[in-house]
Design brief:
This protein is mainly alpha-helical. About 55% of the residues lie in helices and about 10% in strands. The radius of gyration is 15 Å and the shape is elongated.
Length: about 100
């Protein structure tokens, strides 16, 4: 598996990217993160917008034009989708290794 400089994703960034498989605005992203994580991850607005700035700089997400000027809408870029897939594969590999070792123990 090739390593990407953006990996591993933080838990917050992982869920934000996952939430942005469908374009969304900030408040919806916050709700999706909480839902997708089963309530385990709740992010405040400051944390969300700091993470969004980082993901924009890394070109993992991009802004979309919005009819509502008060809401900024974001979506995954193709690079963001690739990095998300790679992080899922990385975690699956870790889980498979751990399960094998635990089963042997």
């Amino acid at each position: 598996m090739n390593r990407n400089k953006n990996l591993p994703l933080s838990e917050v960034n992982f869920y934000i990217l996952l939430a942005l498989v469908q374009p969304a605005h900030g408040y919806h992203i916050m709700q999706q993160v909480e839902t997708l994580s089963g309530g385990q991850v709740r992010i405040a607005a400051g944390t969300l917008y700091g993470a969004i700035e980082t993901l924009l700089r890394q070109r993992l997400i991009e802004p979309l034009a919005s009819e509502d000027s008060r809401r900024k809408v974001y979506r995954l870029t193709e690079l963001g989708r690739q990095v998300l897939r790679m992080d899922v594969e990385r975690m699956q590999h870790m889980v498979a290794c751990a399960q094998e070792i635990i089963a042997e123990g």
